[in-house]
Amino acid sequence: MSSEIADAVAALGPIVQRYQAAVDDFDRETARLLGVNGTDQRCLELLVDAGDDGLAPRDIADRLALTTGSVTTMLDRLEKAGYVSRSPHPSDGRRLVVRLTDAARERIWSIIGPHIAESGAAVAERFTAQELDEVRRFLELVTDVQNAHVLALRARPTS
Questions:
Q1: What's the pLDDT score for residue 94?
Q2: Domains of the chain (ranges, CATH numbers)
Q3: Cβ(82)–Cβ(101) under 8 Å?
Q4: How much is the pTM?
């Protein structure tokens, strides 16, 4: 790696850390406004991404590295708050599907929608499609590396 590339990569570190801190802060404030904890907020985020298909409790457990028992307790909390519903899987009656309620979807989008709209407009104004493709490639790569390290950390015993 050339020193020019090494310097450019090193300069990205603090910027990525500031971005990650800003995302953490946004997520924390979103959770506060929704009246949920961080894990519940992350579950709601997964369900927003899943759309109308929803997710099985087992999928939620796997993605959040939780036991199925703790997911059941979390879903009980979120269902009581009116954020999620559980229904039988359409093709496998032994399984459940968890989905956001319409009220939850509206509440969540009222909080995150303005941020997404403003970010999208600011990015579209300042970057070309080619530049955004490079940013996408960068983010996909660092996300893959981050996820690999998360899995490696999960495999390590607690001291």
A1: 82
A2: 3-126 (1.10.10.10)
A3: yes
A4: 0.86
